[in-house]
What does this fold into?
Amino acid sequence: MKLTILGCYAATPRTFTNPTSQLIEIKNRLFLIDCGEGTQVQLRKNKIKFSKINHIFISHLHGDHFYGLIGLISTFSLLNRNNDLVIYGPKGIKEIILLQLRLSNSWPNFGLHFHELTSNQSELIFEDDKVMVKTIPLKHRVYTNGFLFEEKIAERKLNVDAVNEYQIEKCYFQNIKNGKDILLDDGTLISNEKLTFDPEKPKSYAFCSDTIYNEAIIPIIENADVLYHESTFLESEASLATKTMHSTAIEAATIAKKAQVGKLVLGHYSTRYDAISLFKEEAETIFPNVLLADDGKSFDL
Amino acid sequence: MKLTILGCYAATPRTFTNPTSQLIEIKNRLFLIDCGEGTQVQLRKNKIKFSKINHIFISHLHGDHFYGLIGLISTFSLLNRNNDLVIYGPKGIKEIILLQLRLSNSWPNFGLHFHELTSNQSELIFEDDKVMVKTIPLKHRVYTNGFLFEEKIAERKLNVDAVNEYQIEKCYFQNIKNGKDILLDDGTLISNEKLTFDPEKPKSYAFCSDTIYNEAIIPIIENADVLYHESTFLESEASLATKTMHSTAIEAATIAKKAQVGKLVLGHYSTRYDAISLFKEEAETIFPNVLLADDGKSFDL
It folds into this structure.
């Protein structure tokens, strides 16, 4: 599981900071989360192959989270993309994109699909054989969702020595990996645990931005391996955080602690502060395992 | 008159090149022309005061000419702008911007006005005491206008020695600068040319992008001091230029020559070429006074 931060600063793109966008690579699938202005340039700078992005998740319709989407779609078109593209985001995103494509008379030559979100409950919005994505309803000034990316429980691992010892034929291997016991020709039942090892624990990544401090998300993100939680402000601006429906570093750490996640990644920093290390310092007073997002930074998780 | 190129490359923003946007400063007024994705960052890099921009002219609704507009408007809002902002552009631009502002629930706290264009004839769209702006109907794949920025003819310059010699009172000076003759108390008529010098020749700047080679624009831009004309392609891609309704460097130079402009600025380069100097080389075979636009470059004209 690899997380690449394309942008993690609040409000507006600036000379050296970019608004929110990140890539989570999980089981060889690449998901783009949010798409602030300039995201396509950040993708180029980070040498991401555009054609590998087939699913884009937009948390909410504030500009610093989606103004780069129409440009990215247009560039996909200019690059003669073939793959379908699916956009997941709040109701309204389809109208915004289609209006602009219509007025510029430049309809994409690939399938462009929209999965618009309106629910205030967590729901499964993507699933294939290896990965699931669920929404995390957040509380912000407009309708907002975080996203929980979860690996599915993998197959059990074949104990090669054991299957050889019992002389089990290859055609049964998939059943064994699926957890089945095996009945030998002589009538002996060999339990699955004798033939397999436990699979790797499935990993999960929770993206939560933008949001006010909200304990309602804890049951959804509980035990996630990695939580990205916005921390727009430091404790000195706690009242501003409440007023603008953002979080402080300490609030992000409190959610991480209560949800017993493995690691907390902080981001969505206000540019008013001199150093982002201040966010880590404050968060670590509550939760030990804190990482700082920064534009262009990758985390192998 | 000062021209600042914020971006002058075709199609998509890239790591080191920006889509179209430029500033023309004329008689202390600052006009933004086109606003591709990333324009607000280019404005910051070039240390332009955001509050000085009150009029934005959008040539057409292809993404590389306006996808940065919604982000710039949002940033104006975040910066607590007070001045009114007027957007001039093709019909549809108002719907695009207002839809996004409505869905993000972030209405600007300044006056935001739209002047939508639909005419296929050149028309006066802006005028104050010193400057006029007219449209230049262009031929492209969608409805497109260039813009002609013209200084108004300035007042005549007072000949201080002459007015002193005739002992003319101060209260007549404005009439004299406006070109009036003066009747002295003794009945002598003093012709204006004895009391004034010619004013400076008013300057003009014509922006033409995107467009196929189109001689119909010549009467509108004739004798302009400076013409920016798109040159997306070199002669080797002349047929591609025709097909995509763009121009070559030689076509831009031919328009410059026929319109007898002072200087030609080339831009809107396709990124397929190794060096933009090739555009200048080709254009100079037709027209001598060629300048190359480049991102971040300023011209004192």
Remarks:
- The mean pLDDT of chain A is 96.
